[in-house]
Design a protein that fits this description.
- Keywords: Membrane, Transmembrane, Transmembrane helix.
- This protein is an alpha+beta fold.
- The protein folds into two domains: 147 residues, Porin (Beta Barrel), CATH 2.40.160; 42 residues.
- It has one helix and 13 strands.
Length: 219
């Protein structure tokens, strides 16, 4: 993981990891993953907050004959989990709140939104911009480990929901472009081969006809 110009390795022993799981019967479930480390006189903390939501798949409008305005009734929902917020805190020596600075990604700004029973997989780096008033933005970059980035804050396998894979949009588009490029390369190669073969056959026929037209001389 990289933010600004600093690389943080969560596997390193100097980085302390901490997590909070949501209660199984909670109405609004959320979980947290936190990493903290020291750099000089600073204590830095990076927190990821995941939330489970029921989002509507589609809606239909229904006008209710009352003083209230028309309401929208959602007829079908889908359970999804999302990375709802990222927080980055820098604290200097001392426990006073005035000695700390907090950067946040804000609400409803995450591009990671996945069906509940699926694991998020991405083969590209993901950038998350954190804001703090009167401070320069901090960019947190999630880097793929061993070729791909995997996130699954919900233990879906425990409840028999399976372990399907949700591929991020950027990787899907890149895979489609690469697949299309490979197919076009193969198709171009086939056309080139057919064209070359046709040229050879045409030249052979033309040469044979020229030899048949050549007059024979008798002595």
């Amino acid at each position: 993981m990289v933010f600004r110009f600093q690389f943080v390795d969560f596997v390193n022993e100097s980085v302390k990891l901490f997590g909070i799981c949501s209660e199984r019967n909670a109405v609004e479930k959320d979980s947290q993953f936190q990493a903290s480390w020291r750099k000089g006189i600073q204590r830095k903390t990076l927190k990821f907050i995941f939330r489970e939501k029921a989002l509507p798949l589609f809606s239909r409008s229904n006008t209710i004959s009352s003083s209230a305005a028309s309401r929208t009734l959602y007829s079908l929902h889908e359970l999804r989990w999302e990375l709802s917020m990222v927080e980055y805190k820098i604290r200097w020596n001392g426990s006073s709140r005035n000695n700390s600075t907090l950067f946040t990604s804000g609400k409803n700004t995450s591009s990671i939104n996945v069906p509940l029973n699926q694991k998020f997989v991405c083969r590209d780096a993901i950038n998350i911009t954190l804001h703090k008033r009167r401070r320069k933005n901090v960019i947190v970059q999630l880097l793929p480990l061993a070729g791909q980035l995997e996130l699954q804050p919900v233990a879906t396998a425990t409840f028999g929901l399976g372990n399907n894979v949700f591929i991020c949009e950027r990787t899907r588009k890149r895979s489609l472009r690469e697949s299309f490029h490979n197919r076009m390369t193969i198709f171009s190669g086939v056309l080139l081969g057919i064209g070359s073969l046709g040229t050879i056959i045409g030249y052979s026929i033309w040469k044979g006809q020229q030899q048949m037209k050549r007059p024979s001389i008798l002595f």
